[in-house]
Write a structure and sequence with these properties.
With 282 residues, the chain is mainly alpha-helical. The chain contains 13 helices and no strands. The chain is 76% helix and 0% strand.
Length: 282
């Protein structure tokens, strides 16, 4: 129950990031600056925990190339998702973004050689049908935000598979710090070409975005210390509920019936995959 409570708390606060990112994007602030702030403030927040865990060794990744790949995938996903928010309501972008659990199953089989049975493959196929219901290609004009959200989902799914491959290499907080630090350093190289000085209010939003993102990921990490992944993973979809409420409150956006149907199919497939994984491991 502690794990469930922590996971639900994380899903309740994470959509606030999307509100800030959408508002900052609408105000004309380059998305790359928003992503840079997410990485910078995330790195600053996790630095004390990383130092306590490994001291100065926290600044020397055990597998630098893999950590570089993780940083590119994570903040690439962040950039693509924030771009999607410029074109789509928060709930719609998040619904498409939740293709990432299906990507994880596919890449786990292909890259990690994990055994995936026919039932889980069938659930993946059903999940993609749910994604197609949301996007409706050929029936409606494909919004550019749809492609950004899909790209973000694929990138994040790849990030999680890479993270699974690095399990046990270092303390989780150390890995999070190293990923944020590498991401912030890489993005800093591009800032001189697009820098626009944020206002004081925008700086506050950028800082809050980084703090909330880090707190959300800490809550998720702690949740997995108290509960099995197969139990907690489906709870990630509760984020759509809060995203819908915030999107309606701040932007007057509500998903249409087709999106609700597609999300329902996606959630059902992901829950089945999670339950099936639990049964296989039992």
């Amino acid at each position: 129950m502690v794990g469930v409570a922590l996971m639900l708390a994380a899903m309740a606060i994470l959509p606030v990031i999307d509100v800030f990112a959408k508002k900052l994007g609408q105000a004309g602030l380059p998305i790359l600056i928003v992503v840079w702030a997410r990485a910078l403030f995330g790195g600053l927040m996790t630095l004390p925990f990383a130092l306590r865990a490994e001291g100065a060794q926290a600044f020397r990744p055990a597998q630098p190339l893999r950590q570089l790949a993780r940083a590119v995938l994570l903040f690439g996903a962040t950039f693509l998702f924030f771009q999607a928010l410029k074109h789509l309501p928060i709930a719609d972008a998040l619904a498409i973004f939740f293709v990432n659990p299906l990507v994880i199953v596919i890449l786990s089989a292909l890259a990690l050689r994990e055994k995936v049975g026919p039932r889980r493959w069938a659930a993946v196929a059903v999940g993609f049908i749910g994604t197609l219901v949301i996007i409706r290609p050929g029936l409606v004009e494909v919004n550019p935000g749809t492609l950004y959200a899909l790209g973000a989902g694929v990138a994040l799914g790849s990030y999680f598979v890479m993270t699974r491959a690095m399990a046990g290499v270092a303390d989780a907080m150390v890995l999070n710090f190293q990923t944020s630090a590498i991401g912030a350093a890489l993005i800093t190289l591009a800032l001189p070409f697009l820098w626009i000085s944020p206002t004081l209010q925008q700086w506050a939003m950028l800082a809050a975005l980084g703090v909330i993102a880090t707190l959300g990921h800490v809550l998720i990490t702690k949740a997995y210390e108290h509960g099995e992944a197969s139990l907690l993973a489906p709870l990630a979809f509760t984020e759509i509920i809060m995203a819908t409420l915030l999107g309606w409150w701040f932007f007057g956006d509500l998903p249409d019936g087709w999106t609700v149907l597609g999300v329902t199919i996606l959630i059902a497939s992901a829950v089945y995959i999670s339950v099936r994984e639990r049964q296989v491991k039992a």
